[in-house]
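Q: Start with the shorter request: fold the first protein.
A: Done. Sequence, then structure:
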Amino acid sequence: MKKLVVLCLLFPCLSVYSNEITEDYFDIAANYATYGQYKEAGEYLNKILEIEPGNYDAIELKNVILRAANPGAKSYLSTNNQNIREALVYKKQGNKAKVISTLSSNPKDFWSCYLLADFYLTDKNYQSAIEYYKKAISLKPNYAQSYLGLAQSYKACNDYTNALGYLNKYISYNTNSDFAYAMRADIYMNLGNITEAENDIKKALNIEENISYLLIEAKILYTKGDYETAREKLNILSKNVQTSEVYKYLGLCDYALYNYTSALLNLDKAIILSDEDSNLNITYNEIKSKLENK
């Protein structure tokens, strides 16, 4: 998956459009630019300029894309928006309180709300992230990234129903997002809808065979009860990825397949790598007890 570009640091708030078609084209172009897909963004900007040759926003975004393609270029928004410029300075200094107070001082500015929501999401303050993503949406309903941020925030709170609703909205703008399909597969798995989970993870993997997506696929297979296939995929993953989650699911597959010795070894690795999952210790002790009673 291409690394997300924070488009909101590239250009300022946009004017109101008079043509609904050009507005739709602009939203599509902006979303492509967010993912660094500048060629596709340019195609839609050219469509706008065919209809409205003097469309200021389309001309400006084309200039922004040229700047974004230059790694030495400075952010347009941080150069021209004092609040955001100051917030970025405070962020570099690690002054969270100043970042929050600076961005929240202008509640009617879309980019301030959006960036503050992103800041809260990164800081794992999910309820505040939800609040500010919703404020951003009320100011600019067609900016797709706000819906993705909301979905991520709700998912982090284990509110999978709300996460699914907002993620579906995001996918309606970005129908070729491997990241979104993989995320939705994980949500469907947690909601118990294995068929949809399998469909979405296949879509994600068809777009890009990302290691994190392969792990989600294995987890779906485990949840489905296909322990043999899940274990095969996890075993392959473990050659390159030695994380707590990989060993956890390897151990759980072993346990389901009555391979207690291997289960114990894999869960032991998972616990060593991360002690955040208290249920692992319970499962580990269950397996240990079974082996002792053999």
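Q: Next, the second protein, separately.
A: Sequence, then structure:
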Amino acid sequence: MAIQFLKPKLTDYLNKQASKWQNGVCWRWPDAAYTLEHKLAYLEREHYLMGRYSWSGLIHDWEKVFLYFIPWMTEAKVTAYHRKHSPHHVECPKRCLVEHMIQSYIDWDCAPLTKPDKPLTAYATLLYLYPDEIEYMLPVCLAMNPKENLRQLPDTHKITSKTYVFQSDDYNRRLYQQVKKTLWKMLDCLPTDFDDIKRWYYPKDFHSMLPKVVFLKTLLIVAKSRGQKINGETVKDILTSKLIDLDHYQQFEPLEKPLKQEHSWFALSDNPFLE
């Protein structure tokens, strides 16, 4: 059963409370309201992508709400503690399962639903903030959203950080080539038979997996969660067309604003890899 978590009156209230944030204030209800609204968005997005709610989704970011009300825990300390102890964050030492990466994807991908300061999709977040994770997270991004536009990125972050995609043509091209290389690794000897995919050997730790194995494991998890099967031929055709499209260009193309994000609180996302 689907639940509408982002109800207009509730989200309007939480959004108004979050907008009252003040730097250095110990009684940080605005921070808690911001986190609560994000939790609701996570659950809606989880159902949209996975077809169900999970225990990890229900407890997502739960401790942050309480930590914000501890006077000696500054906002920076809360963030650091949360990232160190939550496997859906790249910084967490316990992060090792493909399930953790799926949680990361949902966490990144639901941000535009309630966070005006974070308008990027999961794929754009990967390239802008975590380019060192491309070989692990790009397969997850494509398994979760086969319609992902790999070539165009919103140029909304006019920043000077080392990971800003459009900081220079040279950096843009190097990152673009890394995406192409990872996609090629995913396609190399990719099995198309569903039974072969199920029989594949999947190490427990995703750090021991090649991009292709991460991709297949993610697809199996998503298919099981949604009660569907993988269409191997369609998978290969779509990934091949994406690689051909990337081959026609040399670097990412900037978009002035993010593309409209498809979302529904009651329906499932359209995933052509599954049937």
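Q: Describe the second briefly.
A: The two ends are 20 Å apart (CA to CA). The chain has a mean pLDDT of 92.
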